[in-house]
Design brief:
It is built from nine helices and 17 strands. With 345 residues, the protein is an alpha+beta fold.
Length: 345
């Protein structure tokens, strides 16, 4: 389990440390206060895709990766200092640093600036390198990008963090549901998935992947139905449960980061989702990080998750991004100290 994280020089975060994470962690706050960036930082530090995670988080924000916008990952575009993310997983520290690259070579700006003005260094930047350290070992991966957007990856290091982080953005279409359904079928977990889907919709009889579609068999319907017709909430529920079943089969410890968890979910569906997640979490070591703007989600999570959940309010101040832990215990949560997840004070 991730116990704490430190983030420096990443997106809108100059410096931030958060500790005492629980099994379920919920971030609330205004738009553009840094909630999503915290989830991204966790996935970068402990993700299996290494430097590829930098491409993915840009794509999730509908940003085309080009040499001209690589420095947008750095706080205030300050690529002269590396991005640094460190997480304590159980008793083990995982350190991640991100450096700019030019001509397929890492350059350390503090050294280069002695000979080249920063503006020229930024124009020369055409890639990024991710350096991950843990277990007294160092692993480096990188990518370069052409002016037309073509990306070339260097060979992966093959590093496996002590806990794998997965980031699921607010755009469910980018979650890769078909990939998870294919693995569920190969790992012979489809029947178990169907049983969980019945908790969401008791008409479900089967689910399968065909070419580029996910099809669902519903009782009383003569043809298979494309999952898109069953709504965003059903797709989100299916993806999360499929991912957890795959992790369970692989005996892999997962950290799942979900941005705007409530999107597409009716409050009754949120209850079904959290109940199913909690049930599966008892079988393997899972940890979840959510962002939300929903009061209903906070209420339901308090009732279902109880002491297993932690709530953090994220605030953008003149002194930078800050987080404040909130207790969900007692009547104060529902009265004077009630959190407004939309960020209003």
């Amino acid at each position: 389990m991730i116990k704490k994280i430190e983030i420096n020089n990443f997106r809108g975060i100059e410096s931030l440390a958060i500790q005492d994470f629980g099994e379920f962690n919920i971030f609330v706050g205004e738009n553009s206060c840094g909630k999503t960036s915290i989830l991204e930082a966790i996935s970068i530090c402990c993700g299996s895709e290494e430097v590829g995670s930098l491409i993915k988080i840009q794509n999730f924000r509908h940003t085309v990766v080009l040499p001209s916008n690589l420095t947008s990952l750095f706080y205030n575009f300050n690529f002269l200092s590396p991005i640094e993310i460190a997480a304590v997983v159980d008793s083990q520290e995982v350190q991640t640093q991100i450096y700019p690259m030019t001509n397929d070579k890492i350059f350390y700006p503090q050294d280069e600036i002695k000979h080249t003005p920063p503006s020229m260094l930024e124009q020369k930047t055409n890639g990024l390198s991710l350096v991950r350290k843990y277990n007294q070992e160092e692993y480096t991966t990188s990518f370069s990008v052409q002016p037309n957007g073509d990306v070339q990856y260097a060979e992966r290091s093959g590093s496996t963090p002590p806990l794998l982080a997965v980031f699921l953005s607010s755009d469910i279409e980018q979650w890769g549901l078909k990939y998870f359904i294919d693995i569920v079928r190969k790992e012979k977990k489809r029947e178990e998935l169907v049983e969980y889907l019945k908790l969401f919709d008791d008409r479900v009889r089967d689910i399968e992947a065909q070419e580029n579609s996910i099809l669902v068999n519903l009782e009383g319907v003569s043809k298979l139905i494309n999952i898109n017709f069953l709504g965003e909430g059903f797709k989100k529920y299916t993806t999360i449960l499929a991912l957890m079943l795959v992790a369970l089969q692989w005996h892999t410890r997962f950290c799942v980061c979900i941005d705007e968890i409530e999107n597409g979910l009716h409050f009754s569906s949120i209850q079904k989702l959290l109940t199913s997640i909690l049930k599966l979490s008892k079988q393997i070591d899972f940890q979840f990080f959510f962002t939300t703007h929903s009061i209903e989600f906070l209420d339901i999570s308090r009732k279902i998750l109880g002491e297993k959940s932690r709530v953090y309010k994220v605030v953008s101040t003149q002194k930078g991004v800050k987080t404040y832990p909130y207790s969900q215990d007692g009547e104060a949560y529902f009265t004077l100290d009630r959190i407004d997840p939309r960020g209003k004070r």
